[in-house]
Design goal:
Layout (H helix, E strand, L loop, with lengths): L5 E6 L3 H12 L4 E7 L3 H7 L4 E3 L2 H5 L6 E4 L6 H10 L3 E5 L6 H14 L3 E4 L6 H11 L6 E7 L21 H4 L1 H12 L4 E7 L10 E7 L4 E7 L7 E7 L2 E6 L4 H6 L18 E5 L5 E4 L10 H13 L7 H20 L3 E2 L5
Parallel strand pairs: 1-2, 1-4, 2-3, 4-5, 5-6, 7-10
Antiparallel strand pairs: 7-11, 8-9, 8-15, 9-10, 11-12, 12-13, 13-14
Length: 353
């Protein structure tokens, strides 16, 4: 741990900045939420009175006290702000999506490498309780050889809110909002697919941006289905994973987002990250039928691990918990799905890094 904490400037105090980044930074040992760039000065004063409100990005980029800039602004501004921060000599965390397309993201990785700076993307759902549990099951071979993985993030939001996430334009829509989460998790488990087939749709009356996606990742034997819809009243399913040794079925979302929205903070109690609806493991028995296994693990979620890892990468050297290269792979998949949908066909996914 450094003798003095790293000073963090958070750019943006909307949903991502206010609910996700600010609380995690403020409660992380070795980090200090020093400045927040936003016009919401009253909210900042109430939520984080120790943080300095700033009117513009230039104010923090020119401040030699700032060590790390966290970009939590609308998606189309991620890359320009991140690039300016790197050029100002600051380490950078970018909220997902990394950028609007792969080439833009690749330019940021090259910029960070040229300046010897840490650059990471906030793929926090690598530390969801259900994903950590699933990964442990796969590592232990509990499902045998996996044949299918269904990853859902459905909602029932029939009314279209008036916000940038739901407007047509660069970086808008559900594929840029939730797609990076599901894509990153699949890629972490199985690596690059052979090919991608995507259906990106607009289903709600009055919607102008994608509010539905169904994306298939084809591997030699495995099929991975990434799905999100906005008109799904019965939206409980999160994962369904099937293999030669059994199935794992998970309903309900990781609890950490709801806890942060409710004002709870990591370390405020001993139940942080404990999923109230753990998944069900079904094993293939000797005679073939599936039997429930009550001994299946149910790991806790740990979003605070992300900023702890970023801190350690800056202070001690080494890689951040989400590297720029792994985030490039996500952007390549985002681009491939858009191309598949536009051309209405399966597209090859040839990843050379």
């Amino acid at each position: 741990m450094p003798s003095s904490p790293l000073n963090i400037a958070l750019v943006g105090y909307g949903l991502a900045g206010r609910v996700f980044h600010a609380p995690l930074v403020a409660t992380a040992p070795g980090l200090r939420l020093h400045s927040i760039v936003s016009s919401r000065t009253a909210e900042i004063a109430a939520d984080h009175p120790q943080a300095r409100p700033c009117a513009g990005v230039a104010e923090v980029l020119g401040d030699p006290a700032i060590d790390l800039v966290v970009v939590a602004t609308p998606n189309d501004s991620h890359a320009p702000i991140a690039r300016a921060a790197l050029q100002a000599g600051k380490h950078v965390v970018v909220d997902k999506p990394f950028a609007l397309h792969l080439d833009e993201a690749r330019g940021l990785v090259e910029e960070a490498r040229a300046h010897g700076l840490v650059l990471s993307v906030f793929h926090n759902r690598r530390w969801d309780a259900d994903f950590l549990t699933l990964r442990s099951l796969l590592d232990a071979g509990a499902l045998g050889e996996v044949a299918e993985l269904h990853s859902h993030f459905d909602r029932f939001r029939p009314l279209v809110p008036d916000r940038w996430r739901d407007r047509a334009g660069p970086g808008g829509g559900l594929w840029y909002d939730l797609g990076p989460h599901l894509a990153d998790q699949a890629l972490q488990l199985f690596g690059p697919p052979l090919a991608v087939t995507a259906d990106l749709g607009i289903q709600r009356h009055g919607a102008s941006a994608v509010d539905y996606f169904h994306v298939q990742l084809r591997y030699p034997r495995l099929r991975v289905l990434l799905h999100a819809g906005s008109l799904v009243p019965g939206h409980g399913l999160r994962f369904a994973v099937h293999g030669t040794g059994g199935s794992w079925i998970k309903h309900g979302l990781d609890p950490q987002e709801d806890a942060l929205r409710a004002g709870l903070r990591p370390g405020s109690g001993d139940g942080w990250g404990q999923d109230p609806r753990p998944g069900v493991l079904l094993r293939v028995g000797d005679d073939g039928p599936v039997a429930e296994d009550a001994s299946a693990p149910a790991l806790r979620g740990d979003w605070p691990a992300y900023y702890a890892g970023v801190r350690d990468a800056i202070v001690r050297g080494g890689l951040p918990p989400v590297t720029g290269d792994s985030a490039l792979l996500v952007m390549a998949l985002i681009d491939a799905a858009k191309r598949s949908d536009a051309e209405r066909r399966e597209v090859d996914f040839a990843w050379a890094g």
